[in-house]
Input
Amino acid sequence: MDLKMSFSIRPKMSVLSKEEIDFLYGGALEVLERVGVRVLHPEALELLREAGAAVHPNSLVKIRSPLVEKGLRSVPKRLVIYDREGEPAMELGGG
Output
């Protein structure tokens, strides 16, 4: 007996105002540039260094706003998430 089920999960979200989004985005950019983030993966450190981020000896990386914005521009508008069997499970974006 094949009991394959199909369902869609739609999480409930609260939408932020434009001002709230801008405030959070600005804060995130400030943290990345002034405080930085610790990156422990050697290949990721090298990629960030090559891209222009400031990589310190203790694996602390500081990323200036233009580099963050360049990265965000390269993100695809649509992304498909696959399940363990390799079948499409959900789509992010695209609409």
User: Anything to note?
Assistant: The chain has three helices and five strands.
